[in-house]
Amino acid sequence: MKNVTKLGLLSAIVAILFSACSSEPKSVQYYEDPKNVKELEAKIKECDKNANSAENDTECANAYKARYSKSLQKPRESAMEFFKNQNTNDK
């Protein structure tokens, strides 16, 4: 009976240690936050080094999604300005 108790305690300790070591991946919202721009850039740079990182690493996928989301939020110039700029570039 003592061995069963010791084994149960040891199992619980090991489970706690492993769960404490693995942290939750950073979310898309975390990377979208303007305060975390440098961290987003660093993560993108790290993820670009590894093929298929978005498929294998949740944080990489979240960083790529945040970058894409932020690119859609950039203000666009009006159609009139766009065509005016096109006409001046064509000359």
Describe this structure in words.
The chain is an all-alpha fold. The protein has a domain at 26-72. Helices cover 75% and strands 0% of the residues. It starts with a helix and ends with a helix. The mean pLDDT is 80.
What's the layout of helices and strands?
Elements: H1 2-21, H2 28-32, H3 37-48, H4 53-56, H5 58-72, H6 79-90
Rounded mean pLDDT score: 80
Coarse structural class: mainly alpha
Identify low-pLDDT runs: none
Distance between the termini: 91 Å
**What portion of residues is helical?**
over 70%
Beta-strand residue fraction: under 5%
Task: Report the oligomer.
Answer: single chain
Instruction: List the secondary-structure elements in sequence, H or E.
Output: HHHHHH
How many strands?
0
Protein name: EexN family lipoprotein
Keywords: Signal
Organism: Campylobacter upsaliensis
Signal peptide: 1-22
